[in-house]
Amino acid sequence: MGAILWITRRAGPLLGLALLAGCVPAPADLRPPPAAVVAPPPASPSAFQMCQGDLDELGIDFQLVPAFSTERGCGLADGVKIASDGVDLNQPVSLSCELAVAVASFEYEWIEPLARRYFGEGVRRIYHAGGYACRDIRGNGHGLSEHARGRAIDLTGFELTDGTVINVARDWAPSGPKSRFLHALAQHACERFDVVLTPDHDAIHHDHLHLDLSGRKFCQ
Hints:
This protein is α+β, with helices and mostly antiparallel strands. The protein has a single domain, classed as Muramoyl-pentapeptide Carboxypeptidase, domain 2 (2-Layer Sandwich). It is 35% helix and 23% strand. It contains 5 helices and 11 strands, in the order H-H-E-E-E-E-E-H-E-E-E-H-H-E-E-E. Strand 2 and strand 3 form a beta hairpin.
């Protein structure tokens, strides 16, 4: 019996050491697991990219205008060239993307509905005298025009689906539905654009409606 006890006492520590040795991980297992690779968050779309998405949603065909600037400070940083803003334009025009969205939205929200209200016809074509143009403000020479940044457009008239033509120079002043249409259009343009200049402003604007996004509010 004593021999058995002696064997048990001697075997206990050895067995404990063996068990302990089995529980200790190999050196490789002691290394910390590699850090999880986290993908960087996707870059937020730029304002220009979101603006292009707005044009797509409005169904506007456009071409990107490569960014450029001149020594005078003219240029386009987010320019697009469009030949239609929902209806045909008399000629393609280069504008800032923001202005292109504003004009297209204005055509949808007011130009078309007002044409149907006053004439019972839709709009086939919008006439303009230009968007981007590297020039000073006409009449006073105090700095560059908003046209020099593609943030202004001059609308000169409209052609309806039945062939009726509404001309700002000819139809602004006389009484009648054409004049009422143009005045209503100018009034609602103040809700969409920062500056709206009409033939009532001065002689320089006798033949067009100047619409721009200058950031300075002035509306007649």
